[in-house]
């Protein structure tokens, strides 16, 4: 029995096997138990010897069993420890942090450039009085140019501003020349969404008022700005235009590359895209804001921020800027 038990013990390597081993030898109907129970039928003179032997074997098996059990538990513990080990030297898993939106990146870039040229930043409300958005800018009620900027009206006197030019009026009202400000911000027009239009977009307004300011200053300022933004080879083009609040007025285009191939269509074939409106502040507007047009003159411009972003990053569909697709946003 001893030899057989020893072999069986060695061969069992699972906890369940150990249990059936225990039952087989030491259980109520186990082999050793059987021998001990049967002592009565053993001849009296051999009884002592057989009993002692059986007890010895039982002790032996119990000891072996306990050792095997302990070894097995230790093995299981070691395996568990090995599996659950934490390598504290491993680099941590990075959580996703957001990045700046391309519109924000470019707005900051523009702010930096203009601040470097001596401009400061002014802000105005997005929900604006009709007076600042239109009337003070020489666009009276029923003026046809209101139709060209499909306005969201809150009521008769309040609109969602259609242009950052409203901030020009707010600044001139409060500040004596010399004035040199920019005002970036969101504007609203009831346009349908397509590749180049959105009902919410961004402008960056510029305003300079001082003695002796001319159209030359306007062109020089814009040219310098575009060079700082896009490099020295960039060209700008002023086309005559009309705005009620500037006279003369111009639309300004910037040269851009037409790179070949798919996904490379910043410009159509002319090689210029329109990025801003500008002009000399209309004397009527200066007067309305309490600035004497006989003494002072000024220029203003309104840059379409989305256009600049598209030109900067070769983006051909404005909708990408608003859809918040991470695959797009993560590129910046
Ligand atoms: N506010 C004009 C627009 O939204 C742009 C502009 C700004 C034109 C300043 C002239 C001067 O189209």
What report would you give on this structure?
- This is Phenylalanine--tRNA ligase alpha subunit.
- Pfam families: Phe_tRNA-synt_N (PF02912), tRNA-synt_2d (PF01409).
- One of its GO terms (biological process) is phenylalanyl-tRNA aminoacylation.
- It is an enzyme of class 6 (ligase).
- Helix content is 41%, strand content 20%.
- It is of the alpha+beta class.
- The strands form 2 sheets. Strands 1-4-5-9-8-7-6 form a 7-stranded mixed β-sheet, with helices on both faces. Strands 2-3 form a two-stranded antiparallel ribbon.
- Helix 2 runs antiparallel to helix 4.
- It binds phenylalanine.
Tell me which ligands are bound.
phenylalanine
Radius of gyration using CA atoms only: 44 Å
- Strand order in the sheet with the most strands: 1-4-5-9-8-7-6
Question: In sequence order, what are the helices and strands, one letter per element?
Answer: HHHHHEEHHEHEEHEEEHEHH
Distance between the termini: 79 Å
Low-pLDDT residue intervals, each spanning 5 or more residues: none
What class do helices, strands and sheet pairing give? alpha+beta
Strand proportion: 15-25%
Q: Which term fits the overall shape?
A: rod-shaped
Tally the helices: what do you get? Answer: 12
Task: Give the biggest sheet.
Answer: 7 strands, mixed
| Mean pLDDT over the residues | 89
- Helix content, binned percent: 40-55%
How many extended strands? 9
Cofactor: Mg(2+)
EC number: 6.1.1.20
Pfam families: Phe_tRNA-synt_N (PF02912), tRNA-synt_2d (PF01409)
Family: Belongs to the class-II aminoacyl-tRNA synthetase family. Phe-tRNA synthetase alpha subunit type 1 subfamily.
């Amino acid at each position: 029995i001893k030899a057989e038990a020893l072999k069986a013990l060695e061969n069992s390597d699972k906890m369940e096997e150990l249990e059936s081993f225990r039952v087989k030898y030491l259980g109520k109907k186990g082999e050793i138990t059987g021998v001990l129970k049967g002592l009565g039928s053993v001849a009296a003179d051999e009884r002592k010897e057989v009993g002692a032997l059986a007890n010895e074997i039982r002790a032996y098996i119990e000891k072996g069993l306990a050792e095997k059990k302990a070894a097995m538990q230790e093995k299981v513990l070691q395996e568990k420890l090995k599996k659950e080990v934490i390598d504290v030297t491993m680099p941590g898993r990075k959580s996703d942090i957001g990045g700046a939106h391309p519109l924000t990146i470019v707005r900051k870039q523009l702010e930096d450039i203009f601040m470097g040229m001596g401009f400061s930043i002014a802000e105005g409300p997005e929900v604006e009085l009709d007076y600042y958005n239109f009337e003070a800018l020489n666009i009276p009620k029923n003026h046809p140019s209101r139709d060209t900027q499909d306005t969201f009206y809150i009521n008769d006197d309040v609109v969602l501003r259609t242009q950052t030019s409203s901030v020009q009026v707010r600044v001139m009202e409060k500040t004596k020349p010399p004035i040199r400000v920019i005002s970036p911000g969101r504007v609203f027009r009831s346009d349908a969404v397509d590749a180049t239009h959105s009902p919410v977009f961004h402008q960056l307004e510029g305003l300079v008022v001082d003695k002796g300011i001319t159209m030359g200053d306007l062109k020089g300022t814009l040219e310098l700005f575009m060079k700082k933004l896009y490099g020295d080879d960039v060209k700008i083009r002023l086309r005559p235009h009309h705005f009620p609040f500037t006279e003369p007025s111009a639309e300004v285009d910037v040269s851009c590359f037409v790179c070949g191939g798919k996904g490379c269509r910043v410009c159509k074939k002319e090689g210029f895209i329109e990025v801003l409106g500008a002009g000399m502040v209309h004397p009527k507007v200066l007067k309305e804001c309490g600035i004497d047009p006989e003494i002072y003159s000024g220029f203003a411009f309104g840059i379409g921020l989305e256009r600049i972003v598209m030109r900067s990053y070769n983006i051909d569909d404005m909708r990408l800027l608003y859809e918040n697709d991470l695959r797009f946003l993560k590129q910046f």
